[in-house]
Design a protein that fits this description.
Blueprint lengths: L2 E6 L3 H18 L2 E2 L8 E6 L4 H20 L4 E6 H6 L2 H5 L5 E3 L7 H11 L3 E3 L20 E5 L1 E2 L10 H4 L4 E2 L2 H13 L4 E5 L8 E2 L5 E2 L1 H9 L6 E5 L8 H9 L6 E3 L7 H6 L6 H14 L4 E3 L1 E4 L6 H14 L5 E4 L17 H26 L3 E9 L6 E5 L5 E5 L8 E9 L4 E5 L4
Parallel strand pairs: 1-2, 1-3, 3-4, 4-5, 5-6, 7-10, 10-13, 14-15, 16-17, 20-22
Antiparallel strand pairs: 8-9, 11-12, 18-19, 18-21, 19-20, 21-22
Helix pairs in contact: 8-9, 9-11, 12-13
The structure holds 5'-deoxyadenosine and iron/sulfur cluster.
């Protein structure tokens, strides 16, 4: 049997795309996925170009694979995803041992191009944004564990001034409403208990129903919530402007919607938000969160932040810290601004030193860590609904699960607990996980 190794960088969209790629290669070539590149006939790196560091990982990875190909010349190397989309043929020029380059919208071509490269020995590049749905060309899903990702839309049309995504993934395209419901029902039939709906700007989802009406994300959530057997629904990533009242109402109406929202704010300064072309104010963001908290008082809110954006003063940064405290953000992501070639912000004058940006990042991360640790400690003694996902490989007497607010749980348990939601009492808060016990009296 030929085998496949996939290295995935970047967001959950890439994780999803890699899963679908593995399904496609299994369907077309009976390829099995292996956990080490040394054994594989096909090596795929699914890339991210959101920041320079992520992009550079692509070239170091394929550089390591070059030696494997020297030992076994029949090995095929494919670079797919956002760096592939951005760099196109330049990847083959820089790394001539790469055989296939595919953008995020043409991944479904991999089975065909694999055969083509094998027979012609010539490299293939397809980084176009074709009109056809890549999903139509992919085989049915196979589930692995009780949680599944479903991509509901591709691309982004927001064009934030710092962001490469609209150029690498193209403009927003929503999948038809019924296609998503069919994919979800296949997964639920296979025992999936939690679905995360994915899109770069997922709350702008506008899929057509068979009657030709536009359905929004709230309607999709209502339909999914009616599936027997499905216990939890999440969605990511959202843009504050598109975080609508109908979506906020969902939190009151659908208990299956997890009490956790990831809503990237990026900055707490209106001046910087405007330079970022984020299209909302700090006040509007705060208003939306207040409305949401009135519907779901226990909701946990996480976010993304960029520090050191060109023109960000210490006062602007202090405004971000104030917002972090007032919303009391939970476990969040923060990054130093990385200029991306071809984006409008890359042309802005930026006199701030890297040391100053690193110092800001540390101060922000210290505050965010302090807050999420405080929230974890406050959870000790409480009863949480936990979806048990797997056995702990390092300690077979333990199981691992996730709370609604996305914390990892460790508890004494066995395979009979896997794939079920259980009420659990939190015993101890650790830096990256919580220790819990099953509570039968809840
Ligand atoms: N530099 C730094 N961080 C960025 N992000 C997006 N583009 C950049 C960039 N050029 C961050 C944003 C976004 C997250 C996925 O990555 O915070 O929400
Ligand atoms: Fe990038 Fe902005 Fe689109 Fe998010 S909303 S993917 S930050 S352009």
């Amino acid at each position: 049997m030929p085998s496949l190794y996939i290295q995935t960088y970047g967001c959950q969209m890439n994780v999803y795309d890699s899963q679908r790629l593995a399904d496609a290669m299994e369907h077309s070539h009976q390829m099995t996925q292996v956990s080490s590149p040394e054994d594989a006939d096909l090596l795929v790196v699914n890339t991210c170009s959101i920041r320079e560091k992520a992009q550079e990982k692509t070239f170091s990875e394929v550089g390591r694979w070059r030696r494997l190909k020297q030992k076994k010349p029949s090995t095929i190397i494919a670079v797919v995803g956002c760096v592939a989309s951005q760099e196109g043929e330049a990847i083959i020029r820089r790394a001539p041992y790469v055989d296939i380059v595919l953008g995020p919208q043409t991944l479904h071509q991999l089975p065909r191009l694999y055969d083509q490269v094998k027979s012609t020995q010539k490299p293939c590049v397809d980084v176009s944004f074709p009109e056809i749905e890549k999903f139509d060309a992919l085989p049915d899903r196979a589930s692995d564990g009780p949680c599944a990702l479903i991509s509901v839309m591709e691309g982004c049309s927001k064009y934030c001034s710092y962001c490469i995504v609209p150029y690498t993934r193209g403009e927003e395209i929503s999948r038809p409403f019924d296609d998503i419901l069919v994919e979800a029902s296949q997964l639920v039939d296979q025992g999936i208990k939690e679905i995360t709906l994915l899109g770069q700007n997922v709350n702008d989802y506008r899929g057509l129903t068979p009657e030709g009406h536009e359905a929004d994300l709230a309607l999709l959530i209502h339909y999914l919530a009616a599936f027997d057997g499905l216990e939890r629904i999440r969605f990511t990533t959202s843009h504050p402007t598109a975080f609508s009242d109908t979506l906020i109402d969902c939190y009151a109406e659908e208990p299956k919607l997890a009490a956790h929202l990831h809503l990237p704010v990026q900055s707490g300064s209106n001046k910087i938000l405007s330079l970022m072309k984020r299209d909302y104010t700090v006040e509007l963001f705060q208003e939306k969160i207040e409305k949401l908290k009135s519907k779901r008082p226990d909701i946990s809110i996480s976010s993304d932040f960029i520090v050191g954006f060109p023109g960000e003063t210490e006062q602007d940064f202090q405004d971000t810290l104030s917002l972090v405290k007032s919303i009391y953000f939970d476990r969040s992501f923060s990054f130093i601004y990385s200029p991306r070639p071809g984006t409008p912000a890359a042309n802005l004058f930026d006199p701030e030193t890297l040391d100053s940006k690193k110092d800001k990042l540390k101060r922000l991360q210290d505050l965010l860590n302090h807050q999420s640790q405080t929230i974890s400690r406050q959870m000790v003694g409480s009863i949480q609904q936990v979806l048990i996902t797997q056995i702990n490989e390092n300690r077979p007497e333990e199981v691992i699960g996730r709370t609604e607010n996305n914390r990892i749980i460790n508890a004494i348990g066995d395979t009979s607990h896997i794939g079920q939601l259980h009420p659990m009492r939190i015993k101890t808060a650790r830096p990256h996980s919580l220790e819990a016990e099953f509570c039968l009296d809840a």
